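for the recovery benchmark. tokens below, seq after
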């Protein structure tokens, strides 16, 4: 991927990095990248993995980082953990990330996603070592008008469901803290990163289309999809993580880079659920089949795309793996049965992407 990526990864060598949500899908991948980049200390703060199996456990990542199992809603413990770690950089990934669960548990979703953000920003405010903070939100923070073009960072924030809305609120919390407490030249650089519909090896969450496909293959059943014509900006997990890492590095060196950024695929990788499942079946091979079965579930957006011009022009970021490659890499991992081989697959894919 060239000199930009090499410089970015070299930047993390000997840095102290703090992650919330390190036991989750993206958090485990980000931890592995930081370890490969030679970070001096990686500290993670999160609840136990929410799924069994989990990528964090399968890759034995806990053995290589300082893993703190605790709740981001516990402000005192979180502040203590950050101050003790003395991080240079913080990535905030911890969240309740599921739309359908947010309908069942709205209070918990708001509490985790809003007050969790308040708490980690309080920790940043009270820890002088932190120079760069990136809050990971979602592409669903925007007021969805079912436009055929992508949403830009200056569009209205107003997520519909409790998950999306709580993430819109987390954006506003971050904006307020940046302006109220981090305006001085020498203070921490504060940004938000908006991406979503991430696929990749080791995602075992419920109500996500690719994990559902993998589970169906394991059970020898047909794949069930609810909304075949809904369009989403699907991307491989390494694409957005590259964006988060690049943003944190850029604003660490120059506070003028702070702000909000979209990280999503190019237009040709924004596909319908039907197209995505067909790509999965092609990659899996054999007798992989799917059918449509609506379940009368809650509201879901029909059309969603991101305009990533800002990240491309200002940060020099760009997606590198198209949707077909993303699905193939996901299937490559899904067909592995031994944990040691899973760890090797993750590290091999990181090397291929960043090499």
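predicted aa per position
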């Amino acid at each position: 991927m060239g000199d930009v990526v090499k410089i970015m990864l070299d930047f993390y060598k000997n840095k102290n990095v703090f992650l919330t949500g390190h036991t989750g899908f993206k958090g485990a991948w980000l931890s592995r990248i930081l370890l490969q980049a030679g970070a001096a200390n990686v500290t993670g703060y999160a609840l136990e993995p929410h799924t069994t199996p989990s990528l964090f456990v399968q890759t034995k990542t806990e053995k290589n980082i300082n893993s703190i199992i605790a709740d981001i809603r516990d402000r005192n413990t979180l502040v203590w953990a950050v101050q003790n770690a003395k991080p240079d950089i913080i990535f905030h990934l911890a969240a309740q990330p599921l739309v359908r669960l947010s309908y069942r548990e709205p209070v918990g979703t708001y509490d985790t996603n809003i007050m969790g953000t308040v708490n980690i920003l309080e920790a940043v405010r009270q820890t002088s070592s932190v120079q760069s903070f990136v809050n990971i939100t979602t592409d669903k923070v925007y007021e969805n008008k079912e436009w055929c073009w992508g949403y830009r960072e200056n569009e209205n924030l107003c997520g519909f469901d409790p998950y999306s809305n709580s993430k819109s609120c987390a954006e506003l919390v971050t904006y307020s803290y940046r302006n109220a407490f981090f305006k001085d030249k020498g203070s921490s650089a504060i940004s938000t990163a908006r991406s979503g519909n991430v696929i990749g090896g080791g995602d075992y969450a419920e109500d996500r289309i690719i994990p559902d496909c993998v589970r169906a293959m394991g059970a020898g059943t047909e794949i069930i999809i609810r909304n075949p014509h809904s369009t989403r900006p699907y991307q491989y997990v390494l694409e957005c993580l590259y964006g988060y890492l690049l943003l944190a590095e850029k604003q660490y060196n120059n506070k003028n880079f702070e702000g909000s950024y979209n990280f999503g695929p190019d237009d040709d990788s924004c596909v319908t659920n039907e197209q995505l499942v067909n790509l999965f079946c092609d990659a899996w091979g054999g007798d992989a089949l799917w059918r449509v079965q609506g379940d009368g579930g809650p509201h879901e957006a029909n059309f969603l795309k991101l305009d990533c011009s800002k990240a491309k022009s200002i940060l020099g970021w760009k997606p590198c793996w198209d949707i077909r490659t993303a699905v193939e890499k996901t299937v490559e991992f899904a067909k592995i049965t031994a944990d040691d081989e899973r760890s090797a697959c993750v590290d091999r894919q990181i090397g291929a992407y960043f090499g």
